[in-house]
């Protein structure tokens, strides 16, 4: 059974570059390539505001053939987007052999989070200069769209995204901070888009949003989805207000159709870190070689976050879904 103790004992993949609050390494996005029989893992490095290059200053992609030794093969900085910050990314090798890298950053044009796509024959050749922005917030009636996570089901690709829903407190000045999610002037929810070719996307709308009350009344951000038995299980990040915007904790939701989700963590988070803020977030569940692998970001005793991994069985996930 997945427990706080088990998460604490997880294998540390990457350490933060500093040893205090505001230094994080995480936002994992894993992909197992059956052609190479190797893992690829996207992740983000953050420093506190005011410490160059600060906030989401860079993202990297690492490769491993054994889940033990991880070697960085690509580094991208926020300056390559002309952006204030980069957030979570997702990597996938399509049936056409091309690698697709979905990433999110603050759009310098309007100060809102956007999501972009780039393609290359090799991971090392992914080039931010060749990116195509596939989702901007305003045309969707949103205040931000970021943190892509990809799932393929029956030839249809499902892209889950963290979205900022407007509220009565949202105004033109909200984006002056370059991080609407940290203002308290929005609601952090989850949206969905679908595609059959990984290039043309159809927006499906909001699939999970916070209730009016509860420990997660500000944020419900789906980070990954696993098929367990006759239903889907989602790991989502929850928080009560923008004060916990960077320290969310993991919760669970279930669905039968990937569009209608019901939280099963109404009384509190599913798991937490025993340290500092208790944050355990950005869970990425991927199945390969007969096991589930969970990659996640975890608060340490010094307030920083590291990135870890554990393995578990399908039976353990079935038990979580109830």
Molecular structure report:
The structure is a single chain. By secondary structure, the protein is mainly β. The protein has a single domain, classed as Tachylectin-2, Chain A (5 Propeller). 4% of the residues lie in helices and 50% in strands. The chain is built from two helices and 20 strands. It has helices at residues 4-8, 314-321; strands spanning 11-14, 24-33, 38-47, 55-64, 71-77, 86-93, 99-106, 113-120, 132-135, 144-153, 156-166, 186-195, 202-208, 219-228, 231-239, 249-255, 262-263, 280-288, 291-299, 305-312. The strands form five sheets. A four-stranded antiparallel beta sheet has the order 1-20-19-18. A four-stranded antiparallel beta sheet has the order 2-3-4-5, with no helix packed on it. A four-stranded antiparallel beta sheet has the order 6-7-8-9, with no helix packed on it. Strand 19 (291-299) and strand 20 form a beta hairpin. The radius of gyration is 18 Å and the shape is globular. The model has no long low-confidence stretch (mean pLDDT 96).
Q: What features would you highlight for this structure?
A:
322 residues, 20 strands, globular, 4-stranded antiparallel beta sheet, mainly beta, Tachylectin-2, Chain A, 2 helices
- Taking all residues together, what is the mean pLDDT? 96
Q: Would you state the CATH class?
A: Mainly Beta
- Fourth CATH level, the homologous superfamily: Glycosyl hydrolase domain, family 43
Order of helices and strands: HEEEEEEEEEEEEEEEEEEEEH
Q: Could you give the distance between the termini?
A: 13 Å
Named CATH topology: Tachylectin-2, Chain A
Radius of gyration: 18 Å
Poorly predicted ranges: none
Order of neighbouring strands in the sheet with most strands: 1-20-19-18
Shape: globular
